[in-house]
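The instructor's notes for this session suggest beginning with a concrete chain rather than abstract definitions. Hand out the sequence below and ask the class to guess, before any prediction is shown, which regions might be ordered.
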Amino acid sequence: MKLCLINHSFKYELEKLIRIFLPFEKIEFSDLKEVTDCCAITEISNDLAIATLILDKKKADRSYNISNPNDLKESELILATALFDCFTEITGYVSQWGLLTGVRPAKLYSRLCEIMGEKDATDYFKNILKVSDKKISLCKETHKGEESIISKSGNNSFSLYVSIPFCPTRCAYCSFVSHSVDKAKKLIPEYINKLCKEIEITASIANKNGLKLETVYIGGGTPTAISAEQLAEIMTAIKSNFDLSNILEYTVEAGRPDTVTKDKLKVIKNLGATRISINPQTMNDDVLSVIGRRHTAEDTKQAFLLARECGHNNINMDLIAGLPNDTLDSFKNTVNEVLALNPESVTVHSLSMKRSSNLNTNGILPEINSGLIASDMVDYAREILSEKGIVPYYMYRQSKTVGNLENVGYAKTGFECFYNVYIMDETHTILACGASAVTKLREPCGDYIERIFNYKYPYEYIDRFDEIISRKDGIENFYAKFGVRD
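After discussion, reveal the predicted structure:
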């Protein structure tokens, strides 16, 4: 598609808006008016925002008044609205999130509530941003859930993230930097050795600066893809170096049921974890095969029951709406089978077709129709989970998601994942260790964020470890500048 930008520089926002309707279309930009068989011509002319869309041999035009042409934010919003309305006319597709393309809609809603009150914030979402009543309701509910969790974090609080970027196989929808255990087997011992050293150094910096650890999250990859002994080595390093006496939760992802063993579950329990995830994604064996998962629905059930046997009383289960070959009836069956296991929390993701995922590179692309089915799936999940007292408490969105939908964490009261809220809200500092980990430093009593990146791949992490450690000086410098306030 050709996107023409006439007399304005709103490239980024308009490109994101086009992705709602055409998530994988290659977009070329021009500052000239170029009419083609597939183009969006956008223009600011005095006090008018003008959009023309030509798509599928159809044409739509919109022009709207700009009350204050000197207000760039208003001009951008009105021009985006004009283009959005053109797309809606031609495609017949009405996005439930309207013009919103951001990652944290509930955080935006919360901020608007503080500025203008709940009624006006709701009106703005509905009438200006064109968000559906259903999604506004979801924002309200998650906003309330997040508020109580955010209030528990102090100005000197932080969370620890530890990356174990290995998996038994790569799922077809995955874009995370993870490596097959079989292929990376030789790297793992040295990786763990370096990771434990980074944990030790990070803990020393946190202690020196008077930071208080509130949550721990070991993710991946699939942390349980490594052996029980290797997992114990990492968790022992955390326990030996960090003060865990004040933590609100400690999560270990045991995401792939085919990696779950009694020994690993005992290690996780005995070394301090309070919460785990066992993630089926679907309980349909045919769909599991399509997405490259080596386990079955029965394997998921057995892994869950084994976790209960080992004393785990806070278990999350992840599901994905919109997977290839899945149907609404099949997804309903998945939700019902998961509920029969009685987990404490369920996270419902919408399929995101990332550029580097196998689903994308293999050409299996979602269409508007599959997005409508996925929308019915997430609606069903919300309805049935809420009936069982498992309610939404956090939410985020990703680009190129089927149906332009969202990812929502649901939990029974008292079993919400604090880390999920803290990282999405950017409530406090996240100190991160391991390959592809990103430390996110949050100014105490302020909004300034600074990031420190580790190298992505395990071999880079090992080979350039000294450089990674030198970057830790950034943490010291940050707190030397901003201090820590109780």
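Then share the key points. Residues 2-91 form a domain with the Double Stranded RNA Binding Domain fold (CATH 3.30.160). DSSP finds 18 helices and 18 strands in the chain.
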